[in-house]
Amino acid sequence: MASRELISYDKGVAVKVLKWASPIFLTFYLVWSLLPLFIMLVASLKDLLDAFSVPKPGDWAGVTIFFDFSPTLTHYVALFTENGFGTYLFNSLVASIGSAVIAVTFGSMCAYSLSRSEFRGKKDLLFWIISTRMAPIVAVIVPLYAIFRSVDLVGTLPGLILAFTTFNLPFAIWMLKGFFDGVPYAIEEAAQVDGQNRFQAFVTILPLVAPGIGAFVILCILFAWNDFLFATIIGSGGAKTLPAATKELVQPQNIDWGKIMAAGIVTTAPMIPLGLLVRRYLVAGLTMGAVKE
Amino acid sequence: MVAVSFNNVWKDYGGGAIAVKDLNMEIKDGEFVSLLGPSGCGKSTSLRMLAGLEHISSGEIVFGDKVVNDLPPKDRDIAMVFENYALYPHKTIFDNIANPLKQSKVAAAEIERRVTEAAKLLEIDQLLERRPQELSGGQKQRTAIGRAIVRQPQVFLFDEPIAHLDAKLRARMRGELKHLQFTLGVTTIYVTHDQLEALTMADRIAVMNDGVLQQFGTPQEVYDNPANSWVATFVGEPQMSLMEMQVTSLEGETALAFGSYTIEVDPKNSARLRAAGKKDLLVGVRPDKATVSLDESLGSIRGEVYSRQLLGADVLVEVEIGKSRVRAKANTSFAGTVGTPCYLNFGSEDLYFFDAKDGQVIPQ
Ligand SMILES: Nc1ncnc2c1ncn2[C@@H]1O[C@H](COP(=O)(O)OP(=O)(O)OP(=O)(O)O)[C@@H](O)[C@H]1O
Ligand SMILES: [Mg+2]
C-alpha cells in the first residue's frame, strides 16, 4: 500500500491561475444550483400575498422583501389533506424502492454470470442489454403502454415497478458487472476448494461488491423517484407518484404556486440524504479493485 | 488416502494454446509427487485440472477407482494452496484459515484449536486478527498454506507454496510440509520450478516441458538417468553441459570424436554405444565430474576460460572449446581468468549419452 502523504511539487502558472479561478467558478456554480432550491423552499413557506411581493426592478435594497414574511405550513398541510399527497408519497416510495430492489437482485445475478462466463455472442448480448437503456423511452412508451394495458398493469403499483425496472435493470447489470469483474475469480475457486458450491462461492464474494450494490440500490431509487414519463403514462390513475401529482397541480385556470413549491420540497427532500450517501458509496465502489495488490 | 491418475489428459485453452499434452501419470496412495518444469510448461494447469477448477479437454482423471472429470471441487475432498494465494480479502486471517473447517461443520472449539495450531506451525499466530492486505507477501503465502493444512483431505495440491518465503523459512517449511505429509499420509502433488525443492521433498518427480511429461521417476532416477537431454540439463545445479560428439573408432575400439580430439570410451559405455548404432551424439557431463586445470595432462582437452563464478566452497569455471562450453567445478585456488588457456578432463564413465537428433537417452 502506498502511503498517503502528499508531496508538493513546483507549480506552474496555469496551476496558480486555476487556484484563483476555481473558487470563483465554484461560487457561481453553487449559486446557480442552490438558488432555485432556496427560492422553492422560501416560496413554499409563504402565503399567496407574500409570494407575489417583489421589489421594483433595480431596487437592490428591496431584496429584503423576499424574506419579509411570516412562515406558514398551510401549503404542506393542504397538500396532504386536500390533494392526497400521502398516497402519492407512498406510491413513489414503493415504486422506486421496489424497482430498485428487483433491479439490483436480478441485476447482480445476471452481472455475476456475465462477468464469470465466456460464451459466443457475449459482447452482442451485453450491447443489446445496454441498448435497451440507451434507446429513448418515448420510442417504446406507446407499445409498452399497449402491452401493459392488455395485461391490466396500467395504473397499478406492480405495473409501475415493472416499468421502472425496464430502465433500472440494464443499468444495474452493466455497472454491477464492472464490480464483479474487479473481484478475482481465484477467490471463488478457493471457496470451492474449501467445500462450497458455486452459489455459496458467489455469496462469499458478495461482501466485496457490497459498496457497489449499495450505491446501485440508491441510484436506482433516485432514477425511479425522478422518473416522469413512465409515472404519468403507466402510473396514471391508480399509481400516481409525486412528480406526476405535482404536475397536476398546474391547472389551466389556476396555478397554485405555493402548493407546487411545497410539492417540490416534498419530492426533493428525501432524495438529498440519499444523494449524499450514494456519493460516499460510489467512490468506494468505483475505485474498488482498481489497484491490484 | 487415495491414488490419483491422469489418463491421456489433454488441456486445450483454445487459440492454439495447448497447455497439457497427453499426460499419463499414476500417483500412488500417500505418495509425494513433485511437478517440476520451467515457467509456462503446464504445471498449474495440471494441478487445476486435478482440483476440478479447469475443464479437461480430453482424457480422464481418476481418484481411487472413481473418474472425477465431472465432479465439482467441493466433492473431491482436496485442499489446495493457490499460486496467487487467493485469500478472502474481507475476512481475517483466522477466518481465512478456518473457512474449510466451517464448511464441513466442525465444532467451534475444535476450529479454534486447529487454526491456532496451524498458525503456530507457520509462525503467523500473532497475525490472526489482521486482514490479508495488512500482511506481507510471505505471510499471505503462509496463510494460504494454513488454509490447506488445517484439515485432512484426500489429496493435497500445492502450487509453489513456499516460493515467496525467505531462504531460511523456506528450508524450515520444506521440512514441516514433508513431515506433515508423511504423518498424515495424504497423497500430495507439489508444483514447483525449484528443483532443489523437488529433489529434496518428493518421492517421485514428474518433469514437464512445454505441456509434455518428460520423465516420471524418483529423484535419484531423474538425476542419474535422465530420459532425454532436456531433463538432463534442467535437473541438477549447476547445469550439465552438452557437447556434440561423433562415434568413431580408435584402433578397433569405439571412441568419440570431439573436435580434433578423440576420446577413449570405457568398455561398458562402448558396448552401449555400439548397440545403439547412432553416429551423432550429445554428450553430457555434470560440472562436478569434470575437472579443469592450467596444466596439460594425459587425455585433457584444451580450451579457454569463458567465465568464472564463485559458488562458495569452490568456483564454477566455464571452458570454451570450439563452439561448446563446458562447466567444471574447480578449487577456489584455480588461477585462471577469462581468456586463460586451460585443460579439461573427464572420465568416460561419468558421461551421459543422448541422440543428437531427438535428444533421447542412448539405452543402457
Ligand atoms: N486461461 C488460460 N487461457 C489460455 N492459456 C492459458 C490459460 N492459462 C494458462 N495458459 C497457458 O497454458 C500454459 C501453461 O500454463 P500454466 O499456468 O499451467 O504454467 P505453469 O507451468 O504453472 O507456469 P508457472 O511456473 O509460470 O506458474 C502457458 O503457456 C499459459 O500461457
Ligand atoms: Mg503455475
Structure, explained:
The complex is a heterodimer of chains A (293) and B (364). Chain A has 293 residues and is mainly α. Helices cover 71% and strands 0% of the residues of chain A. Chain A has helices spanning 13-44, 48-51, 74-81, 85-116, 122-134, 137-150, 157-181, 185-193, 198-226, 229-233, 242-248, 257-268, 271-287. In chain A, helix 4 packs parallel to helix 7 (157-181) and helix 9 (198-226) runs antiparallel to helix 13 (271-287). Chain A is globular. By secondary structure, chain B is an alpha+beta fold. Helices cover 26% and strands 34% of the residues of chain B. Chain B has 9 helices and 20 strands. In chain B, the strands form 4 sheets. In chain B, strands 6-7-8-3-9-10 form a 6-stranded mixed sheet, sandwiched between helices. In chain B, strands 13-12-11-14-20 form a 5-stranded antiparallel sheet. The longest helix of chain B is centred in the middle third of the chain and has 18 residues, at 167-184. The model of chain B has no long low-confidence stretch (mean pLDDT 93). Bound molecules: adenosine-5'-triphosphate and magnesium ion. Adenosine-5'-triphosphate binds next to helix 1 of chain B.
